[in-house]
Design goal:
Elements: H1 2-33, H2 42-58, H3 66-91
Length: 99
């Protein structure tokens, strides 16, 4: 047992050393991808919504490849699941509201 306890500092140092490159990569992408939209992004968002609505009206969504359609479906499912998770957190119960 004392041998294990004596190895804790070296194991901790190794853990820090091994995780630094991965943490740096995570932070690099997190600074870009996890930021809220800025006011400069609003026109791009509105244009994207407009393109989405026009493609739904014109039927250009029929020209998607199977891969693009599958990825769009997965994104939609993810958004729906996060909505349900937020609902469960908000009502503090999995089923029904506590009335």
């Amino acid at each position: 047992m004392s041998k294990l306890v004596s190895q804790i500092p070296t194991l901790a140092a190794r853990l820090v050393q091994e995780s630094k490159p991965k943490l740096n990569t995570f932070m690099k992408y997190a600074k870009v991808e996890l930021t809220p939209p800025t006011p400069a992004d609003i026109p791009q968002i509105r244009a994207g919504i407009g393109r989405l609505i026009s493609s739904a009206k014109n039927g250009t969504w029929k020209n998607l490849t199977v891969r693009e359609a599958w990825l769009n479906t997965l994104v939609g499912i993810e958004v729906l699941c996060w909505f349900y998770v937020g609902e469960c957190i908000g009502k503090r119960h999995i089923v029904g509201y506590d009335v």
